[in-house]
Amino acid sequence: MKETALLFSLLISMSFLPSAAYAQIQLLDPGIPEREYLIYTERVGEKIQQITTETRKVRMDGRLVFEVSGRSPTSESRMLIDAISMSCFFSETLEQRSDATVKRSTDIRDIKYKPKPDELVIADFNSLYFILRGFPWASGKTAKLYFLGSGGADGTAGGGSSASGAGTSFGNAAFAFELKVVGKETIMVGGRSWQCWKVEMGLSGIFGAFFRKSNFWYSVDAPCLMVKFEGMQGPPGTPLKTLELISVK
């Protein structure tokens, strides 16, 4: 039980890491339009709410950027994602919780870590939803997630614990997350049939047995919309979170 509690505390601390992404695995814009407006239904246990996501392709400081804005009854978010590399370099969120309203902002300016060819370097899951649209789709394709701010697997870069309580090996060595493209699957979402790539994400090694894997479904056809997400939001026994696409404009 102590090991499970420790692992869960480390997973929770991940939400306090900066929101950015950089990938050694080559991500490519799948043809995301100049403007895009998506509506999702989010279900966590018995609680249901709508989430809207608006994307605009703009030019900032000489480079093309996707400006992604999200809104729900309890949160607002904004991300800036390079349209060429599909890497997130700025993020801010405002969350209304039962005990406080919390705002976080991250501006990534310098990434020293040199990723390996099979790694996807990110700092949280907020940007992961979007940047996976540019993943090099193929059945059986895998990627290891490297979390910025964890200091590297050997603990030599930024060693010790951060203010969030995350140790240097979190997310990279002792508790490594992996993605795997399971293959194509046809699902019914929002009253229509979608042919999707199914992506499975979970902890590698023996720790994977403690936590249910999360699954993403992305449309096979461009612009590779995230059609559905399903995953746990905490330790075993906590409510399952489901996101389903209900409108595209």
Written overview of the protein:
The protein has 249 residues and is mostly beta strands. Helix content is 8%, strand content 49%. The chain has one domain (2-248). It has helices spanning 2-13, 125-131, and strands at residues 21-23, 35-44, 47-60, 63-72, 75-82, 88-96, 101-107, 119-122, 142-147, 170-171, 175-189, 192-203, 214-219, 226-232, 240-248.
List keywords for this structure.
mainly beta, 15-stranded mixed sheet
* Structural class by helix and strand composition: mainly beta
Helices and strands, in N-to-C order?
Answer: HEEEEEEEEHEEEEEEE
pLDDT averaged residue by residue: 80
Largest sheet: 15 strands, mixed
Shape: globular
User: In what range is the share of β-strand residues?
Assistant: over 45%
Straight-line N-to-C gap: 47 Å
Number of strands: 15
Summed up, the helix count is 2
Helicity level: under 10%
* Unreliable stretches covering 5 or more consecutive residues: 1-23, 153-174
Rg, Cα atoms, Å: 17 Å
How many domains?
A: 1
